[in-house]
Amino acid sequence: MLPPSSYLYMMGNFGLQILVIVISFLQSLGRITMAVAVDVSRFESITMAPPDPILGVSEAFRADTHEMKLNLGVGAYRTEELQPYVLGVVKKAENLMLERGEFKEYLPIEGLAAFNKATAELLLGADNPIIKQQRIATVQGLSGTGSLRLAAALIERYFTGAKVLISSPTWGNHKNIFNDARVPWSEYRYYDPKTVGLDFDGMISDIKAAPEGSFILLHGCAHNPTGIDPTPEQWEAIADVIQEKNHIPFFDVAYQGFASGSLDADASSVRLFAARGMELLVAQSYSKNLGLYAERIGAINVVCSSADAAARVKSQLKRIARPMYSNPPVHGARIVANVVGDPALFNEWKEEMELMAGRIKSVRQKLYDSICAKDKSGKDWSYILKQIGMFSFTGLNRAQSDNMTDKWHVYMTKDGRISLAGLSAAKCEYLADAIIDSFYNVS
Ligand code: PGU
Q: Which residues does the UniProt record annotate as the domain Aminotransferase class I/classII large (predicted)?
């Protein structure tokens, strides 16, 4: 038998025309569908992305069925029963919203006015002259991450080529944010493994050595992942060198209230810089302190030297936000505005925050006591107590952290960070055993 193409050849041009007419006729009757076989995906060149170093830990935890498993990966507050916690004031604020029958129409691009007012006041203090002088541009963002991303886009657009200096180490997503925004970054020394403390001299000299006009990313309080913050005197010296070098401070405030239990004390670093008349950027998040993780509520604030500059900066932040996500969600913004704007709810929030911060401090103490009681080697574990906020930077290396997960079912990030917010008093002894085993038996 000849191949079909030979018959077509033999039919000649005329035969081909007849064939085309017949196919067209059958197609018009719907009898023939022309299918193109797809056996190679158009997305073939896309490789599998690695799991996220922090959020990927929760996925692995969920897949583990061991009864002693413990999720100390993500920085999310849990109760003593290790259950997620919705704050009482959040429930009250949500009830208020239902009673008022509030609408769901679009917010303006810059977000809810009452939220923007409340968040700037919470950051700087309600009676700060900067607010009265309208020198602050505040735009509601998609929580801390989205707010940082807006600021990164502003830097890329108006300070092209300027570098952002980030601490070594830092929250893992900082690098992704600046990479995706095409903002060059480099690191300044921060953590000293020898003292398990701050490498203050290294930090100062790296900030000094950066090209003039760089952005210096600082953790407002409760440094993530180390839990090590500069002292008030060290903050002054950091401000000195930043001013000297004409750098622009860029604060990431994701834990206001969680470091000390006090909202004002935890904002003191930002306020110190602002009081010097410096221009600065501040990204805020309400994920931790109000437990609004999934509501994605936060803000980007730019403190400027004049009201006029602040108005222009705000207009450009809005211009950046519009094609990214158009305008932000309203629910979390109303919760924050209701809580901060109502004196009774505001006080209740402070009490709940003290409670959360207190529970973390007490498991920190219990973990330290348990380790000291079990470890007879004389090793100094006191850094666990000195660190503040949600995390403890254990100093465990990658192999030791793997042992924590593979042998003990303790899920944590591979940099040796554990979230004490996910630890209960009941599990401290177990965690102490896991840490001691990993520290001494894995190199
Ligand atoms: N900045 C710092 C220093 C943070 O630790 C976090 C959250 C954020 C910003 C962003 O928080 P938003 O949720 O966008 O408001 N870090 C947590 C949460 C998990 C994550 O990586 O997003 C953590 O466990 O480090």
A: 68-435
